[in-house]
Amino acid sequence: MRRNARNLCADLLKIRWRDGAGTARKGYACLEDISTEGACFHVEELIPHDTDLTVLYPGGKYEGHVKYCVPQEGGHLIGIQFKAGYRWSRSQYDPPHLLRFRLAGDSDD
Questions:
Q1: Could you give the CA distance from residue 54 to residue 8 in angstroms, rounded to a whole number?
Q2: Residues 10, 97 contacting (CB under 8 angstroms)
Q3: Cα–Cα distance measured from residue 83 to residue 52, given in angstroms and rounded to the nearest whole number
């Protein structure tokens, strides 16, 4: 069971990472869901497990690492766990299309 509820959403965000050879890469990712500790994205290319990744949103960024990358029609679905010091809050970044779910005892941030 997840500690934090995932909120379904949609947004197109820029991402940056380094590939296995250490080459700086960048692209776009479609945000699928987000929670205080992580997010799920649809990306065009494979980004391997444990890859450090930066997600750029208007006015800021989240640093994290890839927890999973699974093939999906038209690309890959990746799960990102945010690094210490990075937590999603709606007051920081409010995706334009957000369907918020609440867990018992969940505070409104």
A1: 20
A2: yes
A3: 9
pTM score? 0.82
Q: How many residues does the chain have?
A: 109
Listed residue (83, 8, 19) closest to 42, CA to CA: 8
Q: Which CATH class is domain 7-92?
A: mainly beta
Token output for 43? 């990306």
**Tokens read off for 30:** 């479609």
pLDDT tens by residue, 1-47: 445 677 767 889 999 999 999 999 999 999 999 999 999 999 999 99
Residue with tokens 């999603």: 88
Q: Is the dihedral of CA 73, 75, 80, 86 positive or negative?
A: negative
Residue (of 85, 88, 84) closest to 33 by Cα position: 88
Nearest to 34 by CA among 85, 78, 76: 78
Hey, which residues does 70 pair with through a beta bridge?
Answer: 77
